From TrEMBL:
One of its GO terms (biological process) is DNA-templated transcription initiation. This is RNA polymerase sigma-28 factor. InterPro entries: RNA_pol_sigma-70_dom, RNA_pol_sigma70_r2, RNA_pol_sigma70_r4, RNA_pol_sigma_r2, RNA_pol_sigma_r3/r4-like. GO terms for molecular function: DNA binding; sigma factor activity. SUPFAM superfamilies: Sigma2 domain of RNA polymerase sigma factors, Sigma3 and sigma4 domains of RNA polymerase sigma factors. The keyword Transcription regulation applies. Keywords: DNA-binding, Sigma factor, Transcription, Transcription regulation. The lineage of its organism: Bacteria, Bacillati, Bacillota, Bacilli, Bacillales. Residues 13-63, 93-141 form the RNA polymerase sigma-70 region domain.
Amino acid sequence: MYEGMIVNQIKKLGIYQDYEEYYQCGLIGLWHAYEKFDAEKGSFPAYAVVTVRGYILERLKKEFTVQEKCVCVGEYEDIFRFEDIEMKVKDFMSVLDEKEKYIIFERFFVGKTMGEIALETEMTYYQVRWIYRQALEKMRNSLRG
């Protein structure tokens, strides 16, 4: 009779993985609702819905906390790979002068547009673009050896 209510709560919460596990949480919540229900405080179906939803949400919260604390080896590899890339970029940028470094850094790492960089450096858009292209060419040439 109340299985549909449990299924409905699972669907409302958008749970599609580990369905059986959350269904079991719903059944446990239903059992607790039955055990603690007081007829003087209202109807059982309303109390059951709130209790079942609470148990399912509690399980979701625990699952989320575990996933947050668990750092996979692959994530560490990504971090080290990023640091490796950052070091390589610094090596490539060593062939640039200060103005070129600034423009490349602001463009790639800060995400500014050419127009924004031009305003900050009091240069024209076309000057910034020209220096930017020169800097990229210098970096390409340093890669080729």
